[in-house]
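Figure-free illustration: sequence to structure, shown twice.
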Amino acid sequence: MTLKDKLAAQRIYMLLGALFITSLVVSNLIFQKFFYWHPFDVEIFGSKLFEISVGILPYPITFLITDLISEIYGKKRANQIVIAGIFASFFSLLIVYTSSLVPATSWSPVDNKMFDTVFGNSILAVFASMMAYLFAQFVDIQIYHFWKRLTKGKHLWLRNNFSTWFSQFVDTFTVVGLLCLFNIIAWDKFLGLLLSGFLFKVLVAACDTPFLYIGVSLFRKRFKLKVNEEIDFM
């Protein structure tokens, strides 16, 4: 690989990392708003099917990006992005916490009460999300590379979906369980939110498979990679 190609690969890696971290941090900040996506009017365990947090919307993007990085840049680079996401999330939490300590002026469009309503649970939310995130992302990367080795780089759809399905269940179970444990949401919502969140993520994982194929194809064409070959820009 030429120096020009290595620099291009590094820039793309940094861009993917920026998208990953932005999606992760935003999902932690907006989680308190829930919405009802209603293709089917079905109720499960006292909750509407697909009655879910808006925080779930950007979160699947992180799994698509780590799968793409795993495929093109390798396991080590994917793990580095995950660790960077953890630090970014805790740093954003520190900023939110510090902002909550500063008293609002009498004319501030957002007063203390409104700010605390929107961001007041962010500390617990980020902790819950980080616990889930640590489990889910590392599980996703491990399973992805297990299937990649087993299939010798073939059947991209299989490792993309199998790794994401399992890791997303781990993520949903952990974060919903911790939010219930911290009394942010009631326990009677646990099973309904667990199933709704997991099924929604499974659907998204299935839908993002074509985008993963497109991304991998573009990378292989741009950098002249063979099947199962990874970029090393160092």
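We now fold a second protein in the same way, so the two outputs can be compared directly.
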Amino acid sequence: MAIKTQTETFRGFGITGELTSQTAVECRFGGEVETVLSAHASVALTGAEADNGEVRYFGKAYFSVVYEDVEKRVCRAEKGVEFTARAQDESVYPALTPRVKLTVENVAVRREGAGVYLTALVGADITLYGEQSFEYLSGGDLICKREPVTVLCAHLCGGGTEAEDEFETEFVGDILMHAETAAVTEVVCETGILRAEGEINLSILALKGENSLVSFERLVPFRAEIPCDSASVGNGAEVSVSVGRTVLHADTDEEKGKCKITAEISLSVEGCVYEEVAVDGVTDAFSPDCAVSLTYGEAVSRGAGALARSTERVSGKAALSAPVDFSDTFQAVTLQRAEANVVNGENGKRLEGVAMATLLVLGADGSHRGIEISLPFSVPVQAEEGCRVSVLACGTSARQRQEGEVDAEVTLKICLQETQKGSVRLVSSAEEGAPIARSDSAISVYIPRAGDGLWELSKSLGKAPEEVEASNPDMEFPIKEGQRVVIYRKKSLQS
């Protein structure tokens, strides 16, 4: 008679894959741009969709350039460009939900004919979410070993928030360029709410006088509360924040030589709450009557763990995109940023990367130059493999102590978020094999292996764990060397 089994199907929602993609977005400025001093690009996602074999995403790139014209006057210009890009992968299908995070990896400047072209290399990190399902054995004629396993299920949520700041500075004639970088420093799940807190580094480049530049920055705190029905205390979660629209107002007082700046920054927030769902599955099974061939199914789910933060001040000789000497006057440092990865070092994990910025100098001939500076760094961290890395660079300073060399210092605000993984391996089906010969003796004595548990012993004997315990109430597990197991079999009398 064939073995009867019962199976169930688990269905949840979670991460099914990850993609990366790059695309170049270009913008043209007119011939009035004589010498580019600083170029910046930011991107905003406007939509994304999954199709057969690809993810299409849409966005808008905002370009700003500070330059000198032919008369050596410092000027500014801004433009926006819409773009569409694709990330191709055979595993993508329309039912998936893509989450796309865009970053500007590099901005290149070239002159062609009468125009100046800015090209932004836009990187896309794409996380795909969809249904996760697997079949598992839930019961039947077999003697089953049941163990609760955990599957991490994702619940997507999103929203927006705003941050404001108001501060006074010395008199400035015009704001030439601004850049914003947001970093999440805390993620907390509360009942029905996903709360995120963090900082925005607001960097401003301004024209102080007729031919004098100045830069300053502000760390603006923000807080976002996103409704999420699945959020509860103790859930893991991750949050991505991108800067949308920034509005700056400058009120100047020439008599006092002061300027009051008001900043209004809108933020887009995307969150994911991870719920631990318990599955009462079968991890092993056997039959007392016949051999059984088991088939196992495996599933992997991913979630988010704890978020740790630290602050490091690093310094050293910076690499330069162009030479400097003592005839140059350092006026401003702007567009601070950093890239880093966690690597294995001789004495543990380290965060290695590079901090970058644009240094604006005034030459002896009265003309400005923009010089890209980069400072490599390596700092020890406590981190796990595969953690998410976020580094906010701020407070960058540069000085020329020796001619031709630039000493740079920068503060790094580091956030590392662990990645959780849930791995499930359950019996998915069972196939009947050859019958097992039964012993007809009333009593059997079995010598088990030292270290075996109740389940291993029961499987070796072909008896349910309850029967083994009933026959050997004084047996202790794991089994010690030299122990004996007695099996009693009821005999029926026939007349």
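Summary for the second example: The mean pLDDT is 91.
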